[in-house]
Amino acid sequence: QLQLAESGGGLVQPGGSLRLSCAVSGSTLNYYSIGWFRQAPGKEREGVSCISSSGSTNYADSVKGRCTISRDNAKGTVYLQMNSLKPEDTAVYYCAASSQLIPTMWSGMYRYWGQGTQVPVSS
Known about the structure:
This protein is mainly beta. The chain has strands at 3-7, 18-25, 33-39, 46-51, 57-59, 67-72, 77-82, 91-98, 112-113, 117-119. It is globular.
């Protein structure tokens, strides 16, 4: 049973920074790709960033240059560092795990999901 739990969300002002964490348990993190997704009010879920088991990364155009995804397999944790946050970044952020080798931001490839953490960006 693979379990994922997000943490680190909370209110942040425009231009501020936040680091989200995704803790993975029930199996070793080494063999999974991890994706970060978000869903804004009234909008469909979209991919933000993902990292493969080998460390390759992808970023959505909307966050490229402002976000960095990383993983610490020994701690079983994946991080999403977000800088220069904008109001349009406001959403519930989810992490998810996939057994695929190449990172993708298609949500259908991810079988295991966390419950999400809220990130409101406002002044």
